[in-house]
Amino acid sequence: MFRKTLLASAMLAALASPALANYQQGYIAYQEGRYTSAYLEFKSSAEGGNAPAQYMLGRLFEEGRGVDRDIVQAYAWYDVSARNGYPQAASARTAIAPQLSSYQLQTALNLADRWAAAAAPAPSNPDSGVSPTPASYAPYSLYNLQVALNKLGYSAGPADGLIGPKTRGAIRAYQIDSGLPVSSEPSLALYDHVQKTLAERAGSAQPAPTPSGPSASLIAEVQSELRLRGYAIPSVTGQLDAATIAAIKRYQADASLSVDGQVTDTLLAQLRSGRSDPAADYRAQVKAVQTALNAHGFDAGPTDGALGPRTRAAIRGYQAAEGLSVTGQIDDELLASLQIAGSGGSDTASAGGSSATVIASIEGELIKHNYAAGRIDGVVDTQARDAIALYQRDAGLSITGQPSQALLDSLRQTTLRNDSEVLSQLVWQIEGELDDKGYVHGPVDGTLDAETRSGIEAFQKEAGLKVNGKASQRLLASLQDVDGDSAGDSGQQDVNLLSPHQTWELEARLKARGYDVGQLDTKADAKTYAAARAYQRNEGLAVTGRLDEQLLHRLQLADAGREQTRQLSDTEKGLLIIQGLLDRYAPPAE
């Protein structure tokens, strides 16, 4: 068997390219446990541009086989392989990422950029007058196909080596424009066609004027800085794509800068230094928090004054470790725990020179009008800025997201109320209560999205409420009262004064209204009592959980004159007859 394996590998080596032959030899060595030999073969093949070999080299470094375990080099090789279109590498890269610190991640990305450039063939001489041939292209990969399509003006999305809707759409559009069979699938033939189109356009194009936009190197530096801070930059490409623009806007909002999504030297300087500007006081406080969190061992990333994803994650980790409310936001409780002077202690607050008192008043007014400003803490965090911006939009004001005395005056005079389920303070409070009680709800952001609805429905079902996934003051009251609800809101013990037949009828009428009574039977259990309390609460009655003829009569009256919404099954009819006989002939209870 071993000889057959060697013979097969020799034939492959003779027929295939050197890089593929090295990969095959390396894979055989890996399977046989000869990891040092596997490393040497994979390394040779990986440096020749073979994506599977690059992935296997990453595995060796991650597993510590044939080489010392090194997760930085493992991530770097996975990244190079993923750029070349190897899907397993992309998954492995995602899985290993949480093990790296921000510094290790940046080191790995730098290594990947260098290795990817070294593996690419040298470009053809543009002055030779010879059109490029397929042999002079960068090796075929999904990553390089995405780069080429983007150059031709087809929006393939970020060049990440992953096939997604944007890439398929770009391929489809190119195939239609070029008169090719439409498959929306990448292939070597398609890649060659795209490269030839690029070469033809380059040959017929007039000398282009000096570009006035940002250089590729400047864009790449900004992408690297953003990625270091946890913003969604799939890969450092040097291209100003949609993902990069979105990340820049998110950073600018987090750092209280003017949001325009533009790449400039000023933006890069801000990323590197967190320099002073009109919102310097806000950033100074964020920088102090970042410094303190890093000192406590929580990786908040660079101290640049931007409350971005990495800093928020560090805040949540610290809050959880210290037993604080886990919000991911800067508030007085966090500042006190970190021994940082809060915004309430000075006359200058988080942005634009507005005092903490004015900001706190604005937050209070926003909450009165049901805008999700969060806690009243005098800190202009992302939540407060979003609530301000939403109110400014609704009120027809200039949208800045910043506090001011004029904004406070407007809030005090307006009759506007946020009746939507977007950035609603009511939804924010409900999400907070769901979070405290362990229900899945998504981010606590005041927006009634699918995750929040799912959490509400789970609570409603367990509490015996009508299951509709909607936010309401009654729902909030139920969430706030749930801890002491087992004995009824008024402190009375659950009691059933109904006959078995009446109990079944009560449950049936409650169930018809959407309340969860559990199994429809003749016995009152915990769900029956919970449903009764929920009905009493929703109808504005005294919440007792007491099952008696008065409660049943109220349900009967409410149903009187209405068409029955459900016909009894034969089994249920039989149950009613049996219970009626039992009630009639059973000996009286003592």
Coarse morphology = globular
Unreliable spans: 1-16, 121-136, 205-211, 274-278, 343-353, 483-492
CATH level 1 name of the largest domain: Mainly Alpha
DSSP, total strands: 2
**Structural class determined from secondary elements:** mainly alpha
The helicity comes to 55-70%
- The CATH architecture designation of the largest domain is Alpha Horseshoe
Largest sheet: 2 strands, parallel
Strand content: under 5%
- Round the Cα radius of gyration to an integer and report it: 33 Å
Q: Can you tell me the CATH topology of the largest domain? A: Serine Threonine Protein Phosphatase 5, Tetratricopeptide repeat
Number of helices: 26
List the domain count as a whole number. Answer: 6
Would you tell me the overall average pLDDT?
Answer: 75
The CATH H-level superfamily of the largest domain is Tetratricopeptide repeat domain
Terminal Cα span: 87 Å
Helix/strand order: HHHHHHHHHHHHHHHHHHHHHHEHHEHH
Strand order in the sheet with the most strands: 1-2
Provide structural commentary.
The protein is mainly α. The chain folds into six domains: 2-119, Tetratricopeptide repeat domain (Serine Threonine Protein Phosphatase 5, Tetratricopeptide repeat, Alpha Horseshoe), CATH 1.25.40; 134-201, no CATH class; 216-273, no CATH class; 342-419, Orthogonal Bundle (Muramoyl-pentapeptide Carboxypeptidase, domain 1); 425-484, Orthogonal Bundle (Muramoyl-pentapeptide Carboxypeptidase, domain 1); 495-585, no CATH class. 56% of the residues lie in helices and 1% in strands. The protein contains 26 helices and two strands. It has helices at residues 2-15, 18-31, 35-47, 51-63, 71-83, 87-96, 102-119, 142-151, 165-177, 188-204, 216-228, 242-254, 265-273, 280-295, 309-321, 332-337, 356-368, 382-394, 405-413, 425-436, 450-463, 473-481, 500-512, 526-538, 549-559, 570-585, and strands at 495-496, 546-547. Strands 1-2 form a two-stranded parallel ribbon. α2 (18-31) packs antiparallel against α3, α3 (35-47) packs antiparallel against α4 and α17 (356-368) packs parallel to α19 (405-413). The chain is globular. Mean pLDDT is 75; it is low at 1-16, 121-136, 205-211, 274-278, 343-353 and 483-492.
